Amino acid sequence: xxxxxxxxxxxxxxxxxxxxxxxxxxxxxxxxxxxxxxxxxxxxxxxxxxxxxxxxxxxxxxxxxxxxxxxxxxxxxxxxxxxxxxxxxxxxxxxxxxxxxxxxxxxxxxxxxxxxxxxxxxxxxxxxxxxxxxxxxxxxxxxxxxxxxxxxxxxxxxxxxxxxxxxxxxxxxxxxxxxxxxxxxxxxxxxxxxxxxxxxxxxxxxxxxxxxxxxxxxxxxxxxxxxxxxxxxxxxxxxxxxxxxxx
Amino acid sequence: xxxxxxxxxxxxxxxxxxxxxxxxxxxxxxxxxxxxxxxxxxxxxxxxxxxxxxxxxxxxxxxxxxxxxxxxxxxxxxxxxxxxxxxxxxxxxxxxxxxxxxxxxxxx
Lengths: 247, 108
Description:
The complex is a heterodimer. Chain A is mostly helical. Chain A has one domain: Four Helix Bundle (Hemerythrin (Met), subunit A) (Up-down Bundle), CATH 1.20.120.80. Chain A has eight helices and two strands. Chain A has a two-stranded antiparallel ribbon. In chain A, helix 2 packs parallel to helix 8 (221-246) and helix 6 (178-210) runs antiparallel to helix 8 (221-246). Chain B folds into two domains: 16-74; 76-108. Helix content of chain B is 81%, strand content 0%. Chain B has helices spanning 2-8, 17-43, 48-69, 77-107. The radius of gyration of chain B is 22 Å and the shape is flat.
């Protein structure tokens, strides 16, 4: 019927009665929310790119690298610690584990969506629970990462007053220019807050699934909408990972 | 109980094996690309080429996540472009501002 309305003379599919974009109102609004959220993250990453490229880059050998205010630090010398292995240099290994955790939780989310299409409540419960576990695991890793970044490395950095500064806060850090730590806190913090919100929403969906809300409603579209948000969080991490840890 | 009645009306379909297999394939690709990024991070010396490779691989990963996991590839064309075109402008903004940053460092 929708089709015949659209093809009637003098009427287009934008004149009402049909969904020109082929998705429900809720899903469409989630897409446009995510687009606006992408603008926010882009603004942060673009600013990071501007400030970073306006600082001098370290040009020497990786092995000879020392922390200095004179140039932007290279990431594999900053993020090289893993829990329980104090003093062992494992550059980027921990952040690799975090990336893997987030990709896996994205997969379990999409499996929950697939189960929702089949009205399979038990499978949705199972996969939502795994997604929540993945989200909490990622947040725990990030808490450790922050704690380590704030507490600082063994050597620290000599500051003007003749003392040594360890770790980082918003004004000083041992790794490089003050902006370096400020961007670290702001960008990974903003992303971490999104992950936290995502875990809360996922839990809400899990709760509603267990209570049979979506069975009564006759569809599991809420799983899809929150799934979109969760994949977006994973997507942002892909970019943060590249621009903060790799480049 | 009321709950039992609610669930009794629902018809559960069997798992879509083909679709699930495809999702795991995408997951495998994402994992493989990330592993490749790690390999490059430790074997190549830094420079514009290394940065370009990282950005290209990131776009590959983003395309798989948005296209397959978020299902955008299969949505109506209007929706697809409504999301994609604004992001193309953002990419331009990133390039412009990084270029600007390099100019600032030259002036300093």
